[in-house]
Amino acid sequence: MLTLLLIVLAVIGLLVVMRREAGATPALAVLAVLGVIGLVVDAPVIGILLLIGAAAIAITGLPALRRKWLTPRLFAVFKKVAPKVSDTERTALEAGTVSWDGELFSGKPQWNKLLNFKDDGLRDDEQAFLDNQCAKAAGMCNAWDIAQERADLPQKLWDYLKKEGFFGMIIPKEYGGLGFSAKAQSMVLQKLSANETLMVTVGVPNSLGPGELLLKYGTQTQKDHYLPRLADGREIPCFGLTGPRAGSDATSLPDTGIVCKQTIDGKDVVGVRLNFEKRWITLAPIATVVGLAFRLFDPENLLGDEEDRGITLALIPRDTDGMEIGRRHHPIGSPFMNGPIKGNDVFVPLETIIGGEKMIGEGWRMLVECLSIGRCITLPSGATGTARYALGWSGGFTRVRRQFNVPVAEMEGVQEPLARMASLGYISQATVYQTANLIDHGEKPAVPSAILKSQLTEFQRDILADAMDVHGGKAVTLGPRNYLGIGYSANPVAITVEGANIMTRNLMIFGQGAIRCHPYVLDELAAKDANDIKGFDKAFFGHAGLIFGNAARAFTHGLGLGKQSTPFDRPAHVYAQDIARLSAGFGLCADAAMASLGSALKKREMLSARLGDVLSNLYLASMVLKQWQAGDKVEGEEALLHYSCRFLLQRAEQAFVEIFDNLPNRALGKILKVIVMPTGRRWNRPHDNLARDIAKRVSTHSALRTKLLNNTWDKDDGDERNPLARYNALLLDYDRAEGLYRTLNKAYAKGELPQTALHPEQRVEAGLEKGLINEEDATFMRDFEKEVLEMLTVDDFAYDAFANDKSTLINHNSEPSTTIPAAAAEANVK
Fold this sequence. Notes:
Blueprint: H1 2-20, H2 24-40, H3 44-61, H4 63-81, H5 87-94, H6 100-106, H7 111-115, H8 124-131, H9 133-138, H10 143-150, H11 155-163, H12 182-192, H13 196-203, H14 210-217, H15 220-231, E1 237-240, E2 256-264, E3 267-282, E4 289-297, E5 308-317, E6 323-325, E7 338-349, H16 363-400, E8 402-403, E9 406-407, H17 412-440, H18 446-471, H19 473-476, H20 485-496, H21 501-516, H22 521-530, H23 533-558, H24 570-597, H25 605-630, H26 637-662, H27 666-676, H28 688-698, H29 703-708, H30 723-732, H31 734-749, H32 760-770, H33 775-792, H34 822-829
Parallel strand pairs: 1-4, 2-4
Antiparallel strand pairs: 2-3, 3-7, 4-5, 6-7, 8-9
Helix pairs in contact: 1-2, 1-3, 1-23, 2-3, 3-4, 4-23, 8-12, 12-13, 12-16, 12-17, 13-16, 16-17, 16-18, 16-30, 17-18, 17-25, 17-26, 17-28, 18-20, 18-21, 18-25, 21-25, 22-23, 23-24, 24-25, 24-26, 24-27, 25-26, 26-27, 26-28, 30-33, 31-32, 32-33
């Protein structure tokens, strides 16, 4: 009995020490004291074993002892097995900052660090721009006209975008720009997502491109010349990075620049002779100035002794001799301006290099530093805006679309996707807004940018698929009335650009985060490179303490012991505690994967992707809790909080299970499963009751629907009719209409109305005649049904409308001889 008691006390004591990462001395003390007690109370075997354990901890854990024999051996092994980090990888790792993502990697997230990023909202000028200029711009768009008729935005809209400074949101006011915060930029792009082409056209110049590069790295002369012209639209920029052989692997640029001299106006000018071929360059067909990434070489050593000067960026006017520009690609579903750029022996002076000579070779660093912000905003904001519009349209449509005498929104098969759409949109809004808030506080979130880009565009894909499903024939029939189909077909663009989601999920999120966000790995690698054994000892044994700490935290939290206190209120508290539990498990699994696979983990992309999935879902859930804590709650929002957090935590646990099942070291996988999930999985898919409640609220005029659609274009005040405003108006009147539907349908079922009154309009007139409703009600229903029918109607076209070459048109109802095109008939005669 005494032996068992001492063992239990030793385990508890060590778990407490490990959870607190208190170090070797407290652990040694626990075992030594219990060992002495064992000897005193006549339990010599366990006492001796505990003292042996204490001695082992002293030899391996106390710095003064371990540095004499253990650390040198570990350092030698580490230098052999540690992965080599290339210069380009190191540049990417050092780009940006580490914030909440680092807390999640630590396994012991401190929630106050996240909550301390206060949100001051939008400035008055930002909100006014959102309410007025953005609404005006959105109101000039008709998706069918833009995509099918003109393959461009209307000239009137282009002029308005330039006049109102849409292309200068990131440019400071002193250069004529709007100087908007990251939150304001995000909200603008969300509102403009009423039309995909409009959002992309405005988003790209305010994301990764010449404007941001000039702001951060340009010479003062370059800033003074270009920034005012970019701000007011006199210059339209594009940025040439990707090409036929350099897409996701942008560091393998085959485009070259050779430093040389050329005689201009009788003077020898030192410059660069460029040869390049770029593809998929947004705004290229209409750009007036081209940002260009290329590999610079100096074979004649005109600039110094080094021949390969590295990736360099330049800014080249459109009319430069030798540059071919103006042709277009045809992006799927959306005719935003995109095309190739080629250059053959294009000579430019050194002054065109962004930042001048001092920034030669710094191009990759410049790009990845800018990308950490731009990738957090543009596509994630577009995906979030699309989610909001799709939800608004879908909720309205499913409420006014009736089948079997009930709105289809009352059918559970429709309620399930409606609730899912609402949840994914809610998660997206919280994540993109709160991450933008981090940026406004000076953070440059490199790893979260990969999370947001991949996760939110995948959400967009799921939301649009659900929206298409619940709309049915309304959405699959293209035409001016179809507000959904063209955007749905354009979704693969968001999935592919700015780092294809396959690459981002499998390589970037965990691959970059494992080193960049880990509390110790970067220090260990730095110590290796500097041959700093003392620095290695500190980092390595700190790392070891973290591993033991995460194991203890994950296991005890999994058993429901010693749960973390959190600053959240009742609904959010339990989710914050479980994020902390899973964060500890994630930290442990990340270290286990890196230790067991070493550099081979780079090639285990499916495993890396699942580790990234855990981090992504924990990050998204954290942003939802931050938004909940900071924002004003409305009726019904708590159900959406529960649905969203359970959805994300269920996905995180599923990723854990797949990690355990697929670790090459099967014993390690089983051990991790016991530590991280000692009682099994905790989270199932959200309950049906939550789905029913959410679906009803988003398909009726409710406080929750209003909040989710806040700051979208929801007024019918534009040049084009606004389907969201029309659905909102119908929902305002829906309760009255539903009561009249019930009265008339009940009377019809009883035989009180003629059996030929099959249409709602016929039943209204028959009900009026029978005195079941009065003239006021009849007038109301006539107007209501007229608008409903308009929203349900799809377009049709002339038979020959889709044939670009009318001579190939076949008249299937004519005599066979007339089906032969004229040219072929003439050939047959000859």
